[in-house]
Design a protein that fits this description.
Helix content is 15%, strand content 38%. It is α+β, with helices and mostly antiparallel strands. The chain folds into 2 domains: 35 residues, no CATH class; 127 residues, Protein of unknown function DUF192 (Jelly Rolls, Sandwich), CATH 2.60.120.1140. Strands 3, 4, 5, 6, 8, 9, 11 and 12 form an 8-stranded mixed sheet that branches.
Length: 168
Amino acid sequence: MTGKVWTGKVWTGRVWLGLAAALLAACSPGAGGAAPAPAPTVHPESGLKVIPLTITSASGTHRFRVEVAATSAEQARGLMFRTRLGPDEGMIFPMNPPRGASFWMKNTVIPLDLIFIAPDGRISNIAAQAIPYDLSPLTSIGPVKGVLELAGGRAAELGIAPGDKVAW
């Protein structure tokens, strides 16, 4: 029976082994190239998409998971009324086309660091430890392609400074 693949209703052992190997290969993460990218996550409180963001500084590469405030309504709300923000969490406000930006802390319960990101991806300036509920404008130096909000004091804690590179 070694020369035959199919004999009536009985499969040979060699065919079973080949089928099992093919199924295992098809189910493995490396099948057909790289493993599939994980589905985008959504923040449980805001409902906004969460993406990875990195800041490369003299002190190393710092990785964050940030909510994306993409629409005008999402940007207007920002982190208002939130009572906590994890140390490696934040919110990015993309600006396309790049433009001058001005933020305030109206209805913002927690202190924040606002990191203004120039069109070349480098930090132009940081408004550190913004005071909750303060209506004073916190503005960018020049046009920015995004503003990143982190928990207050986190930029200084990690050694993040103007000139550092931000990627998302």
